[in-house]
Design a protein that fits this description.
The chain has 11 helices and 8 strands. The protein is of the alpha/beta class and about 260 residues long. The strands form 2 sheets. Strands 1, 2, 3, 5 and 6 form a 5-stranded parallel β-sheet that branches. A 3-stranded mixed β-sheet has the order 4-7-8, with no helix packed on it. Helix 4 runs parallel beside helix 10 (about 215-230). It binds nickel (II) ion.
């Protein structure tokens, strides 16, 4: 018995440090006071402008977005993890996935997450006739309104694709992304976490899929790592509000400050 306890304890102490690998920056936390920079001149001289700004600015905001759900097991676990961490997210749901998962949609709304539209059957809008485009979006919107009430359900076109002609049919803003770790392809928590942490900047919109268990694990670790760096996780809508950008219907945004061309 003693041996087992010792082994367990050894296991606890031998655990690797949390995988929050980020480019190494000088530790200036002792000099950081909110609002005012109190960085000694000898250190200030060695820093570039971006670092100084970073040290003196308000909290950093980022938006996690999840496509292709809801899915009973993975989305439930994700919502539990978000709640535990006080993090908000945006869910671009597929209409077909909604029946049987109504409770998850209501929970998203009740817990302050944004719900968006990812079409009814995950069609490639670029190659679909215009009537079907409208129907695919409308059917999901009707379902969502029945479940969570009125609201503007922003669109994420499947695969991020929509031509300029079809974009004119869209009555809400459209959201692309600015960080894509290709979680659906990697299916590996550590690789997804690294890909996001290497790329992420304040104001980014991160693309993940709550359909995969590895992506849920990665999302929760990403939140832990970035919250430790002072990041706040907000919905896409909130990110626009914070940046003072009014999202326009029919426009595809990679982030609030970056429009993505549709051709
Ligand atoms: Ni999708």
């Amino acid at each position: 018995m003693k041996k087992i306890v010792c082994m367990l304890l050894a296991g606890v102490f031998l655990l690797p440090a949390a995988a929050c690998a980020r480019p190494v920056e000088p530790d200036l936390s002792a000099y950081h006071t909110s609002g005012e920079a109190t960085i000694p001149m000898e250190i200030l001289g060695e820093l570039d402008e971006a670092t100084v700004t970073d040290l003196t600015e308000e909290p950093k905001y980022v938006a996690l977005t999840f496509d292709d759900g809801p899915r009973a097991d993975t989305t439930t676990r994700l919502l539990d993890g978000l709640l535990e961490r006080g993090a908000a997210a945006t869910f671009f749901v597929i209409g077909e996935q909604v029946p049987g998962n109504a409770g998850l949609l209501r929970r998203m709304r009740a817990e302050g997450h944004q719900i968006g539209n990812h079409t009814y059957s995950h069609v490639r809008l670029l190659k679909t006739d215009k009537d079907t485009v409208v129907e695919e979006i409308h059917k999901t919107e009707v379902l969502l309104k029945e479940l969570v009430g009125e609201g503007s359900f922003w669109l994420r076109p499947p695969y991020g694709l929509i031509g300029s002609e079809r974009a004119k049919l869209i009555k809400t803003p459209m959201i692309y992304w600015s960080v894509d770790p290709q979680d659906w392809k990697l299916l590996n928590k550590d690789k997804v976490v690294s890909a996001v942490l290497e790329a992420v900047q304040p104001g980014d919109v991160i693309l993940l899929h709550d359909f995969y268990s590895t992506s849920v694990d990665a999302a929760l670790e990403i939140i832990d790592c970035l919250q430790a760096e002072g990041y706040d996780f907000v919905t896409v809508e909130e990110l626009f509000r914070i940046q003072g950008v009014e999202a326009q219907a029919g426009v595809l945004y990679a982030r609030p400050d970056k429009v993505r061309e549709v051709s």
